[in-house]
Amino acid sequence: MRTRAIAGICPSLFLAALLGSAVPALSQQGQPDLPPGPGRDIVLSVCAGCHDLNRLTAGYTPEGWLTVTNMMRNFGAPVPDGEWDTVRAYLIRAFPEKPRPPAVLIPGPVDVRIIEWPLPTPGSRPHDPMSARDGSIWWSGQLANKLGRLDPTTGKFREYPVNPMSAPHGLVEDGDGAVWFTGNFRGFIGKLDPKTGEIREFNLPDPKARDPHTIVIDHKGTVWFSVQNGNFVGRLDPKTGAIKLTTPPTPNARPYGLAVNSKNVVYFVEFGAPRVATIDDDMRIQEFQLPNAGARPRRIAISPDDAIWYTDFARGYLGRLDPKTGEVKEWASPSGPKSLPYGVAATKGAIWYNESGAKPNTIVRFDPASEKFQSWAIPGGGDIVRNMTVDRDGNPVLANSLENEVGRVEVKD
Ligand code: HEC
């Protein structure tokens, strides 16, 4: 079994080898107090192995902890056999969910139906969604090391195993129907043939390029990707497999969401800085400064007029940049400064995004003409939509990482 295969390896060394500097930096931070009780010692010895114990203090509902422990088990956290129930009970008691801002739901003129499908592998942490041209909905099962496909008309699933510890993250379909993805923990770009399940891996040429993240394909078929922790943007020529990497001028810019405009220009947002940027075929990067120094744009969408829209995760805003003038306009998200706006898509004449901090998570529609918001609760709570794409009918598509679901926002025209 895959979890056994790595159980003997010291997880911190193991993950440090994969993630590099990110891990030691995390484990040097102050650790939270762990209240007494059965399971405490295991949590103390096991759960700090790959990341800081402060990860636990956000707290989760009992169902949330069930998902988190399933995810950690999938990923090989070496809790002794028979002890997972004790560990889970301890976590539920010690770290209940912290208060979150209640979702502010705004009525409006548009009618939607939000559908969610539970995924076959528990704790797979569906990170990003993708909709293929045949109408299927795909997801990256990051902590199950699988890519998945759902036929939403029949409800039939197919899961494709990727190499153990790949932790697939972003995914995108090319013109021939192949699915390209980022192998987040192993530093490669993967290409899946959905007919055969065969995968080709293209290794990133620089060992510092850790955390390959979001992936898009431009109008000429060139593959572009962000490398968050390594602070690179990359370009892969699908004909030769050649990869070029470059670093933004800003240190620790943490390139994150990526999108291509109507003129085939690639834009990305920097999650480590208040900046939006663009990159050309010669790998030259131009950055745009956002007015508020605290802004941390996480995801990006481009409307048909080539305006750049971003979710400001840190401040709870939706923003619009006009790249011709550099002018920026921002709107406070309905559920407030802690609403954590995350995935975003431009479709059906509006901007759609989710508030990942609000309880329950919301889908928000912003009408650029009237500058008015409308919002809906995601059924079942929705936690946590980390990216959004659009299906062939123009409907936003979701992956709910903690709920272990994929979803679709069906917009009634
Ligand atoms: C083998 C490495 C490893 C070990 C050991 C481990 N984790 Fe994790 N954990 C991960 C990875 C990988 C992620 C997801 C990627 C990320 O966000 O860094 C994660 C994420 C999390 C998250 C955030 C989940 C989310 O999606 O919001 C929590 C909470 C968490 N771990 C708790 C635990 C607990 C509790 C334990 C001990 C039972 C544990 N982890 C042990 C690797 C590990």
CATH homologous superfamily of the largest domain, by name?
YVTN repeat-like/Quinoprotein amine dehydrogenase
Based on secondary structure, the structural category is mainly beta
What coarse outline follows from CA principal-axis ratios?
A: globular
Integer tally of domains: 2
In CATH, the architecture of the largest domain is: 7 Propeller
CATH class of the largest domain: Mainly Beta
Average pLDDT value? 93
The largest beta-sheet arranges its strands as 1-28-27-26
Q: How many beta strands in the DSSP annotation?
A: 28
Integer-rounded radius of gyration: 20 Å
Enumerate the spans where pLDDT stays under 50 for 5 or more consecutive residues.
Answer: 1-29
CATH topology of the largest domain: Methylamine Dehydrogenase, Chain H
Account of the 3D structure:
Helix content is 13%, strand content 39%. With 413 residues, it is mostly beta strands. It has 2 domains: 2-94, Cytochrome c-like domain (Cytochrome Bc1 Complex, Chain D, domain 2), CATH 1.10.760.10; 111-412, YVTN repeat-like/Quinoprotein amine dehydrogenase (Methylamine Dehydrogenase, Chain H, 7 Propeller), CATH 2.130.10. The strands form 7 sheets. Strands 1-28-27-26 form a 4-stranded antiparallel sheet, with no helix packed on it. Strand 15 (266-270) and strand 16 (275-279) form a beta hairpin. The relative contact order is 0.12. Residues 1-29 have low confidence and may be disordered. Bound molecules: heme C.
